[in-house]
Structure formats: C-alpha cells, structure tokens
Design a protein that fits this description.
Subunit of the heterotrimeric GatFAB amidotransferase (AdT) complex, composed of A, B and F subunits. By secondary structure, this protein is of the alpha+beta class. It contains 15 helices and 16 strands. The chain has a 9-stranded mixed β-sheet.
Length: about 475
C-alpha cells in the first residue's frame, strides 16, 4: 500500500517582501542579482524584521480557500541552520503556532475519475532564502533578491495513494492560487516547490526533495515506489527515515534521521504574535474571494460549451480567461463561431513558437475578431489565417493595418482560379507518380499527402476542400473514400 503526503511552498505575490520594504520580485528571471534587497534581507547587524500586512492577508485568503481553520493566535519561530544563502543563520517560520490548520481540498469529477478529499494539516507563513548560483568551477555566487520573499508552506496529510492523485492535487492547488491572485503558480520558476513524503506498506517515511516540475514529481514517486517494493520483496523493510534527492533518473540518499539537522526551533523574540479577531475578520476576507475553481470550471463548461482541457487552460491564467470572454462575446456579435480553438491552439501555439508569453497586448481582441471575420467570410484559407496570425504577433505595428489590406499586400487572399488549381494539381500528380499509383491501387488515404503538397505549392491560396475535390475529379475517386 502506497501512502504519500506533500509539503508545498508557494511564493506570495505581495508588493513588498515579508519583513522588509524591499520590492517583491517573485519572478526573478529578468531581475539583475542583488538589486531588490534591503539591509534586513542581507542580514546586516542591527536590522530587525517588521511584518507587512499584505503577505498575511494573502496567506489568510489561501487558508480560507483551502477550507482551513484560522488561528486566533499564531507566532513566528527561528529555524536555525547555516548556509551561504541564509546569512541570518536561521529562517523565520511558524513551527509551533501556524496561521491555519485542519483544511481540505476536494478533487472532483473534473480532476479524477473518482472523487477524493485531501486533508490539509496546516499552513504556515515563512520567509524564502537567497539563491546560490554555480556559474563556474570552484566558485559560487549568492543572489539575495529571493531572500525574505513571503512564502506559505502547506502540509497535507498522507492521503494520496497514487501518482494520479498527486498530479491532480498539484494542478488544482496551482489553479486555486492563480484564481486567488496570490501566486503565479509556476513550478518551473520556483514560485511553487514540492517535497514528497512517501511510504510503502507502513514502512518508514522517505522524503524526496529537488523536484522542479510535475513530471519530475511523478517520475520520482514512481521510481521510489518501485525501489522500496524491491527492497521489501527481498525481505529488507525500510526502517530508517531518510531524505533523498532526485537527479532526473533516480533518487539518491542525502541524509538519514541520524544525520538530520537539529534546527533548534525557538520563538522569535523580535516578532510579536499575530492576534486575530477571527469572528470579525474571516467573513470580511471570505467576501473578497472569487468563485472557486470548481464553480468557475462548471460555469465555463456550461456557458461556453468548450472541452475540459481548454477550460483548464483558461483557468490557469486569469488574464487569458478575461481575454477569451471578451473575444467570445465579440465573435458572437459578429456571427463568428466559438473562437476557443483559435485561442488555445493557434494563438497560444504561435506565442510558444515565438518564445513569447501571453499578454492581452500581444493581439488586441478587436484585431483577432477582424481576422476571424475575414476567415469566416472566405477571404483567406485557414492556413493563411494562421500565417497572418503569426505575422501580427511578431509585427505588432501591422495590427493597425486593415486585414483585407494585409491579405492583398502579402498575397494571402483565397482564390478560385480554376486554371491555376489545375496547374498545381497536375504538377503535384506528375511529380509523385508512386503516390498516385498507390491511390489508384486502393489506398485513398494517400490523397491527404497530395493535398498537403498542393497547399504548399499554392502557398495556401486554395481551400483544402477545393484541392481535394479537384484531385478526386482527376483521379476518378468517389466522394468520402478517403475516410475509410
């Protein structure tokens, strides 16, 4: 029997850091090292922490969204250890009296085939550490931009019994944080970090660290489960509690219980306890919460008649969701079908190819609608529509130019020139006699290959259906035979 519990750290998107007035740059990718720090962040002697209210509010929102009980009194403690990126010599956390306890997150029919409730033991507020960077052999660099960024640590009960449940929980936890606007929800950038506690057949617990992505988490769990099963089958029960790391292929022992660090937790004498009038404050905070992920998912699926996969893509980004709703309403007014595929497949796909992140400004909604209307009116083929979409993304200055003018300028208008279509199809058939022979010999699906070649040769000028009909006419193929 497999038992899994999770410890998840999430960076809070407050404007300032937890205990200083430094700007909180939760996305560190574009920030020069050691430029968003204060004296306290780098632990200069004489500096003292002062709790900012915004991270506390974000933590309380998260706790309520996860159905936790808010503590009337919570305190900060010092977790002592020494490392280069933690110059204080300790981390400020909430070991003894966390901000919230006893919550849960429901995994519904939208998350798993069988619904399940995952209990949450506690949520605590703590400060992030700096980052140690190894850029050259024999030398390491410390970046304190991340130091003192506010974190919440959420600890679950060992309620997971499969990797599918773990994957579903992490995804829903990410969606919940994004929906609340308290965290970016990104594992890849370190905004969310996950540690796994795993045991098999009630043997001792193994903790797995250094898991940067959901796929790494799943792979590490599968590997560790098989490793422990092999040991148990050999008659070697897991009796030692240990911490293991993940190198991308296998788990490796980092330390055992005997080697575990004694953190010497003690109350922080420089920070007063947080005392909340729970009966007064909880209703006020709860009133500010948006509809839950499940409520929004149900609304989107019903109102817009889209697939669950597309709904989850929208829920992962509040700005994308708002963009889609505006795009949908304007498409309806213009008589254009639901634009969900053009948004999630074509627009997001084009942005990915161009290494660009989604922002509403990458393509104004009105311009997107104008493009889709031109497509609906038959002014261009779908292939040329995709080309024009990519062009508009990479050349934003052309978004001011009317779509018909761009179609003429780039010769992207759909044509019904019979003579040119005859020339293209004849040329493709002449250059591919073996394919023609296979089609005539009873393999009509090969026709799709010729259609693709004709589309390429005509640079997307003709509708694929028009090309298909012309090829069938020339090859004397009955309609619909390519679908057999």
């Amino acid at each position: 029997m497999l038992k899994i519990g999770l410890e998840i750290h999430a960076q809070l998107k407050s404007s300032r850091k937890l205990f200083s007035l430094s700007k909180n740059t939760t996305s560190l990718l574009d920030v020069h090292p050691n430029t968003t720090t204060s004296f306290f962040d780098v632990s200069l002697p004489g500096t003292q922490p002062k709790l900012n209210k915004e991270p506390l509010l974000l933590a309380l929102k998260t706790a309520l969204a996860l159905n936790c009980s808010i503590s009337e009194v919570s305190t900060f403690d010092r977790k002592h250890y020494f490392y280069g990126d933690q110059p204080l010599g300790y981390q400020i956390t909430q070991h003894y009296q966390p901000i919230a306890r006893n919550g849960y997150l429901n995994l519904t029919k939208y998350d798993l085939p069988k619904e399940k409730t995952i209990r949450i033991e506690q949520i605590q507020i703590e400060q992030d550490t700096g980052r140690t960077l190894y850029k050259e052999k024999g030398r390491s660099y410390v970046d304190f931009n991340r130091s003192n960024i506010p974190l919440i640590e959420m600890v679950t009960k060992p309620d997971f019994s499969s990797v599918e449940e773990v994957r579903a929980f992490i995804k829903k936890f990410q969606q919940t944080l994004v929906n609340l606007g308290v965290c970016t929800g990104e594992l890849e950038t370190g905004a969310i970090r996950v540690d796994v506690n795993l045991s098999v057949d009630n043997n001792s617990r193994i903790e797995i660290k250094n898991l940067p992505t959901t796929s790494a988490i799943v792979a590490a769990i599968r590997y560790e489960y098989k490793r422990q099963c092999r040991l148990i089958e050999k008659g070697e029960p897991i009796t030692e509690v240990e911490t293991r790391g993940w190198d991308g292929k296998k788990t490796q022992k980092l330390r055992s219980k005997e080697d575990a660090i004694d953190y010497r937790y003690m109350p922080d004498p420089e920070l007063p306890a947080i005392r909340l009038k729970v009966k007064d404050i909880v209703p006020k905070i709860r009133a500010t919460l948006p509809p839950s992920v499940d409520e929004q998912l149900q609304e989107v699926l019903q109102k817009y008649d889209i697939k669950l996969r597309d709904a989850n893509i929208l829920l992962a980004d509040n700005e994308l969701m708002d963009y889609y709703k505006e795009l949908y309403n304007k498409c309806v007014q213009s008589g254009v079908p639901n634009p969900i595929n053009w948004l999630t497949h074509e627009l997001l796909g084009s942005l990915s190819k161009s290494n660009m992140a989604f922002e509403k400004s990458v393509l104004e909604v009105d311009k997107f609608v104008e493009l889709l209307v031109a497509l609906q009116d038959g002014l261009m083929t779908k292939t040329n529509g995709k080309l024009l979409l990519m062009h508009l993304i990479n050349n934003p200055q052309d978004q001011k130019v009317p779509i018909p003018q761009l179609l003429d300028e780039f010769d992207l208008t759909k044509t019904d020139e019979t003579e040119l279509l005859d020339q293209v199809t004849d040329k493709v058939m002449f250059e591919n006699p073996s394919v023609v022979e296979q089609i005539m010999g009873g393999k009509p699906k090969k026709l799709n290959y010729l259609i693709g070649l004709c589309m390429r040769a005509s640079e997307g000028k003709f509708d694929p259906k028009l090309i298909e009909d012309k090829l069938k006419e020339k090859l004397s193929i009955l309609p619909n035979t390519t679908k057999t």
